[in-house]
Amino acid sequence: MVILALNCGSSSVKYQLFDWERKEVVAKGMVERVIIGDSFIMHEVPGRETYRKEYECPDHKVAIDLIINTLVDVEHGILKDINEISAVGHRVVHGGEKFTCSVLIDEKVLDAVKEVQHLAPLHNPPNIAGIEAAQAVLPTVPHVAIFDTAFHQTMPEHAYLYPLPYEWYGKYGVRRYGFHGTSHLYVSKRAAVLLGKSPKDCNIITMHIGNGVSHCAIKGGISIDTSMGLTPLEGAVMGTRCGDIDPAIPAFMMQKENLSAKEIDSILNKKSGVLGITGRFTDRRDVIENADSGDHRCKVALEIEAYRLKKYIGTYMAVLGRLDAVVFTAGVGEMGWPIREKTIEGLEGIGIKLDRERNKGAMTRKRETLITTDDSPIKVFVIPTDEELVFTEDVVAILDGTYTDHMNFDYSFARKDFVRS
User: Fold this and answer.
1) Is residue 303 within 8 Å of 274, Cβ to Cβ?
2) Res. 312: pLDDT tops 80
3) pLDDT at 33
4) pLDDT band for position 32 (cuts 50, 70, 90)
5) Is 321 helix (H, G, I), strand (E, B) or coil?
6) CATH 3.30.420.40 occupies which residues in the chain?
7) Contact partners, residue 117, CB within 8 Å, separation at least 6
8) In this structure, are residues 320 and 219 in contact, taking their beta carbons and an 8 Å threshold?
9) 245, 248, 254, 255 alpha-carbon torsion, rounded to 10°
10) For position 286, what pLDDT does the model report?
11) Model pTM score
């Protein structure tokens, strides 16, 4: 069984092809600059040089056609025929309250996803376009939706409701939903294995830090709070998103600068965060390099980000009552050792003892690493995330009729004998 995982963004399509029998990724890649012009595909097959091809993709259907044609290409592909693909798993950012687990996509499911797209106007429309495009290219295979929000549907009411007019929740669904669910699911299950415990016996804080950033308080294996809210804008400092701010600031700046609601929304989502502070960068590697060279605004950006991360650890530790481990994951979480160091240093009083050399050595996306001392009461791990594996296992289980939900399903990566490929 060969599973194609698709992650359709507004101007990109990431993909991964997984051979279920061999339990390995046989190809992966990305089509970039979809719709906006000068698009191209980067295609990787283990043991081969990365293949790049420039090809104009005015929409997601053309991008997915390009992916399929590349996968079956005689020279650069990995499949003999398109019919070798057994099913497709699609990342869907927002499922609202309608979806608490992954589901087989039919007309009703697609309509329900469309009904909540106003909750994620930057993400759900391209997700929907990707589903419809893939269904057109692969009409005879099952398609499965895997929701970013599903993992967080276990949050209690007091955690997901905002102190706003209750009618807004009833009429418009205004509440905390949370995102990056598949990533938080994967790394929390792996952390439980590293701790030698069942997920149901673990209290863990997971910190997904990339261009988008979210944190999750996981108690007994389930999400009880998370930093992102109604949209992915709330929470930590991000690459271009502001995260938590005084809610009066947007109205204040709209008056001062004569900005429309659309303009202020764009600023908060696309021109704030690390980019807003530095004025130049979103990539933390650039920020770290320029901070080391004396750039004051880059230094401040690092301090602000780490300070906010530290505060979330303290907040979620109070919520959990007892903490077994903290996990860093995603691009910055896995590679940005200076940010991890600034976040963790000074937390010895609450039971986190950083091993600086281990932390500096954890600069790979291929290995799970302990970065605290052996005697640290609370462990801190760097665990590379694998959202596509969650996609694949959900898809296979749904096709087999063995899938239940993320709390009770027996994922391969939650077992002691799991070996990361």
Assistant:
1) no
2) yes
3) 86
4) confident
5) coil
6) 2-147, 196-382
7) 94, 124, 125, 128
8) yes
9) -140
10) 93
11) 0.91
Residue 180 gets the label, from left (phi > 0), alpha (psi -120 to 50) or beta, of left
pLDDT of residue 410: 87
405 is catalytic: no
Would you list the DSSP string of 355-398? -HHHHHH---SS--EE-B-TT-SSEEEE----HHHHHHHHHHHH
Specify the DSSP class assigned to residue 354. Answer: B
Q: Please state the rounded mean pLDDT for residues 274-294.
A: 93
Q: One of 148, 324, 386, 394 is an active-site residue; which one?
A: 148
Amino acid identity, position 404:
T
Answer whether 7's CB lies under 8 Å from 91's CB: yes
Entry field: residues in the chain = 421
Distances (CA, A) of 254 to 257, 260, 268, 270: 5, 7, 12, 16
CATH assignment, 196-382: 3.30.420.40
Residues 116, 82: Cα–Cα separation, whole Å: 32
Helix (H) or strand (E) holding 89: strand 85-92
Query: What pLDDT digit, counting tens, does each position of 324-373 carry?
Result: 999 999 989 999 999 999 999 999 999 999 999 999 999 887 899 999 99
Q: Chain-wide mean pLDDT for the chain?
A: 92
Pairing state between β 379-382 and 369-370: antiparallel
- Looking at residues 238-245, what average pLDDT do you find? 94
* Residue 44 CA: distances (Å) to CA of 15, 47, 74, 122, 266: 10, 9, 15, 28, 34
Report the C-alpha gap between 397 and 296 in whole angstroms.
51
Task: For domain 2-147, give its CATH number from 2.30.30.60, 3.40.50.300, 3.40.50.2300, 3.30.420.40.
Answer: 3.30.420.40
